[in-house]
């Protein structure tokens, strides 16, 4: 599958559009676009490539990753899919935004489709596997494209680092276990697409990540 990465908002968050170039079915993952021009960039990419949005997927529900969830759900008439173990993160979203000095563009919506470890999603004939990777948050999941040898991991794993675990529901030991048992079970040449910053791969992190020695 083809992946388009678009860093959005002040944090910034990597928003991904992953699609099957035959059927043109796509998933929007972690829509962090906040400003109108960012939202237009996402919409223009989807429409300009003739894509059909089948899924709106979230790796986790921290505020910076969900800013355009209502926009994408309404614009493309698609359900909001995430692990419901993270749904508490949406409580008082407006208040949390105010603490960072901004307001939400529209009222946050609730999860409509629960994602769980082992779920299989399909874009055309290509498979996207849901992998539970709790630790950064209780409901963190990754999306693995076995044919493309790539995995979208949210904030579980970064180039030379791991996600923070000091936010509500985070747990350091759980995150380390998730990486070792779930992500490091993938082939070394699997490309890792993180929620912030540059890409990496499983083999490099297995050998070099100081948190995972």
User: With helices defined by DSSP (H or I, 4 residues minimum), what is the helix count?
Assistant: 5
**How far apart are the first and last residues' alpha carbons, in Å?**
31 Å
**Per DSSP, what share of the residues sits in E-state strands of 2 or more residues?**
25-35%
CATH superfamily annotation:
Ribonuclease Z/Hydroxyacylglutathione hydrolase-like
CATH architecture: 4-Layer Sandwich
CATH class (first level) name: Alpha Beta
Taken from the alpha-carbon principal axes, the silhouette is globular
- Compute the CA-based radius of gyration: 16 Å
Q: Report the average pLDDT across residues.
A: 97
**Overall SS class:** alpha/beta
Strand order of the largest sheet: 1-2-3-4-5-6
Describe the protein in words.
There is one protein chain. The protein is of the alpha/beta class and 213 residues long. It has one domain: 4-Layer Sandwich (Metallo-beta-lactamase, Chain A), CATH 3.60.15.10. 22% of the residues lie in helices and 29% in strands. The chain contains five helices and 14 strands. The strands form three sheets. The protein has a six-stranded mixed sheet with strand order 1-2-3-4-5-6, covered by helices on one side. It has a six-stranded mixed sheet with strand order 7-8-9-10-13-14. The radius of gyration is 16 Å and the shape is globular. It starts with a strand and ends in a 5-residue tail after the last helix. The mean pLDDT is 97.
